[in-house]
Protein: DNA-3-methyladenine glycosylase I
Amino acid sequence: MTRCPWSTNDPLYVQYHDCEWGVPVYDDRMHFEFLTLESAQAGLSWITILRRREGYRRAFANFDPQVVALYDQAKVEELLQDEGIIRNRQKVEAAVNNARRFLEVQQEFGSFTKYIWSFVGGKPIVNHFTELGQLPAQTPESVLLSKDLKKRGFKFVGPTTVYAHMQAAGLVNDHLVSCERHREVQELICDL
Structure:
């Protein structure tokens, strides 16, 4: 199978590339998972996060924002001792804060899915890049989304982190056209 060149031979990377990256996500829990992981990734490699994903699932109640929103300072201190996650106080506290903000967005819009997909008109942006160097770090859409998330009180959601979330959650299809997943992912697109 021809893959995007960033997908190394590491089985975790291959599985992530082949089965998840760029697939449109319409499930709120999955959006919270990607948002939490992308925020944790800031300044680190994505493979570092993928290797700790199961630790994050365990530590953050399988990414149930209703449970995570109830985490108190004692729970944060406990998480800072958990070797299964990135033990950075700001990132752990951001995950708890973001769970609370996530619930507020769900309350206002009916779902986080409806909210986030509105930034791309309810349909993925399909790019046709031929080289990795063409992929942007951020776009006007990610800048707008980042600003809105920050205005709502979310943390660790800069435009680059938000664009990574948009790529992961299929709001954009950034598989290179030479990658077999470009066409496959495009076929999964449906209107919201």
